[in-house]
Write a structure and sequence with these properties.
The chain is an alpha/beta fold. It has ten helices and 22 strands. The chain binds flavin-adenine dinucleotide. The site of flavin-adenine dinucleotide has 37 residues, from helix 1, helix 2, helix 9 and strand 21.
Amino acid sequence: MLIIGGGNAGVSLAGRLLRYHVKDVAVIEPRSRHLYQPLFSHIAGGTADAFEAVRLQSAVMPKGAVWIQDKATDVSTGTRTVLLESGSAVTYEHLVVCPGIQNDWTSIPGLKQAMEGPHGASNYEYELAPKAWKLFKDLTRGTVVFTQPPGPASCDGAAQKPMYLACDHWRRQGVLQDIKVVLAVSTPTIFGMDLIDEELNRKIAEYGIEVRYSTELAAVDPEGRTVELTNTVTGTSETLGYDVLHAVPPQSAPEWLKSTELPAAGSRGGFVEVDPVILRHPRFPSIWSLGDAASTLNSKSGAALRMQTKVLAKNLKAVLRGRKPTTTYNQYSACPFVVSRNTVVFSEFNDAYAPMPTIPGWDNLARERRLTYIAERILLPRVYWNLILRGRA
Ligand SMILES: Cc1cc2nc3c(=O)[nH]c(=O)nc-3n(C[C@H](O)[C@H](O)[C@H](O)COP(=O)(O)OP(=O)(O)OC[C@H]3O[C@@H](n4cnc5c(N)ncnc54)[C@H](O)[C@@H]3O)c2cc1C
């Protein structure tokens, strides 16, 4: 059993497969450190330290799994082989492809340079998140522009979290009224679910945030410190000066993956083609995929892949024992919107953005609450390191 990618999906799947007594589990993962991405938003917003989001990869790799510290560069479905950057190759009986998503910083003119300059930051890169908090913390007046790209993206709503955290900080410092906050979102509403939109719009009004709907970042001039925003409905453009730019990049499948046989012909983003319910490749039955790299229909998130891990592990176990894969993924996803330094609005939804509350019929977690902040900020990281990565949650 070979897994490409030892991130959230790969490690938790390896842990679960070993618990199911699947033999010969190997994970290809080039990095020496494992990152817990949901904490990046807190690092950018000043409610977590950077070290909290990192562990050694060797410490999170499940006991019994073989770690191949290398990078996959191609998959040969004919010979059932994964080619590695080092020049060697690994054969597989079954292959799970989960190398995550790629941040396309160069797809918008000037964006990469702006991030490298003194006024740009992002919670979508571990190195740029502490820089965001440094910029927010010291700001007492000026204009801050936040951007959320069109999907597919990893946990789309995470683009907004540092904004709410920063606004709450500025409000506590008594400077919020001197800071113009502009958010550009590509969607016509703030999220897309009535109840969540209602909660987020209330916070947006409270903080005095100016939202540009159906709007995308078209270009950045890092020298002149301006962004060009384009409204995708009217086609009009606006040039806006900024003191701080917090940007989230457009995203797509990792480059090497796009050029394999695994995505569907002409697919958007180049993600691995899978049956979105069974999580098996429709053309190559020995290949499976989950997490951010899979072309499932749900909004990509750790919450979604936690469900997917259970489904994929059960289906794989069934196939290895000569049975049919019958466990189905119900398209659940979730996004905890951190809307202040001690509250969260917790959205749970399916691929059509219909509510999927954990407790059916009880949508109270979708209201702004302290309880969900404690769950998201304090409990969940512990559950992640100690249970999810071990395939136990
Ligand atoms: C800022 C931010 C905030 C988020 N907040 C939340 C949240 O609050 N709640 C939530 O549920 N989700 C959240 N998410 C989403 C969640 O983190 C992802 O959905 C999840 O990490 C995806 O897991 P994955 O294993 O598919 O990808 P990753 O965790 O990114 O892991 C992919 C792994 O594959 C490895 N890899 C890459 N290329 C290769 C290769 N060629 N060969 C071998 N290995 C390779 C990488 O090194 C990496 O370790 C957030 C994401 C971000 C970026």
